[in-house]
Amino acid sequence: EPVDSDGEGEAPLQLRPSRTAAWVDEDDELEEETSAFLTRETGDKLFSCSTELWPLLLFVFQMKKCLHANSARPSEDRLTTVQFHPSAQVVMTAGLDQSVSLFQVDGKTNPKIQSIHLERFPVHKAQFSLDGEMVIATSLKNKMFYLYDMMEGRITPVHTVRGLNEARVKDFSVCPEGGALLLNGTNGYLHLLTLKTQEVVRSMKINGNVTGVAFSNDGSKVFTNSEEGEVYVWDMRSSRCVNRFTDDGCVKGTSIAASRNGQYLACGSQSGVVNVYSQEACLNSANPKPLKAVMNLLTSATSLTFNPSSEILAIASRAEDEAVRLVHLPSLTVFSNFPIAKRKVVYRASCLDFSPHSGFFSLANNKGHAPLFRLLHYRDF
């Protein structure tokens, strides 16, 4: 049975809403120096988030390394998940040590809120529901998955999903419309599961195996890529494939991500190349050409994520230490100073995320840590 690793029972969780963060007013010397530099370079537009700022920064991104997001409770094994809460100043980590943990993010001490232990359940992936009130957690070899209702402090194992003919539930995506998950099945299947009735309502199939899923911002379309290097575009309402194309130069697809503003689609490959496309071209063209082929990763591109303002694309490979890069999207240029440390800090990253207004960036690594960076260009959490 799952237990609260703090031994205090599964008490209802009180999530403090995200706000203009207090840490903005508690800056140390490093930030003061950086802010002074930014003010000199950009004048009154400091923290305006306008893309007009970027050329003036010469592609050196101003950031500060903070205490690890999960410093109050490091994982005893590889972390597989880091995710910021959609509306509270909270971050979640989960990993192979069979735990899911929540931390308040202040950039200083990042105190632990709660940690739950799931017996014999190394967590492969954990995600907040769309409303942020629930956590969905899957494992490596289980058909069962867990639902953790944070408001009521209730952990529910889901043993059976009606209409699901799969040996395990491992990779999934939370649908933007809420109340549903898209499960990655075997042999190219994608299954749409409703959380309310816990049943599969429909399935879609591609050729080969699914290696990545990304929703359009309104949830009406879903992009999937395959081991064969093809990208499929599905209409979620009709379950029809509305477009299909070959990812340029790709032999084996490994990851995919879509920007929230509907402008970009990024496709990662086993070679490490990340192609950035116009999302509109991917919806309408049978042979779209990349706006940019990002070639800074030398091993398989396993993680891709856009920041909420669609100005930055974070890319990573879990096959090599420090293999994380940040791409400035308006210019499609890689920032030259990340990773920023002279010594290893990132190690091997398996998951990346930005806070709701891009004030923080974090990643899950193989050392059980979630390194946390404050992005000084963005004022709010």
UniProtKB/TrEMBL annotation:
GO BP of this protein: rRNA processing
Sorted UniProt keywords: Nucleus, Phosphoprotein, Repeat, rRNA processing, WD repeat
GO CC field: Pwp2p-containing subcomplex of 90S preribosome; small-subunit processome
Record carries keyword Ion transport: no
Renumbered ranges of WD repeats: 210-244
Alphabetical list of InterPro entries matching this protein: Utp18, WD40/YVTN_repeat-like_dom_sf, WD40_repeat_dom_sf, WD40_rpt
Domain of life: Eukaryota
Residue ranges, annotated region (Disordered): 1-24
Subcellular location: Nucleus, Nucleolus
Major localisation: nucleus
Keyword Repeat: yes
Family: Belongs to the WD repeat UTP18 family.
PANTHER family: U3 SMALL NUCLEOLAR RNA-ASSOCIATED PROTEIN 18 HOMOLOG, WD-REPEAT PROTEIN-RELATED
Protein name as catalogued: U3 small nucleolar RNA-associated protein 18 homolog
Species annotation: Mastacembelus armatus
Lineage: Eukaryota, Metazoa, Chordata, Craniata, Vertebrata
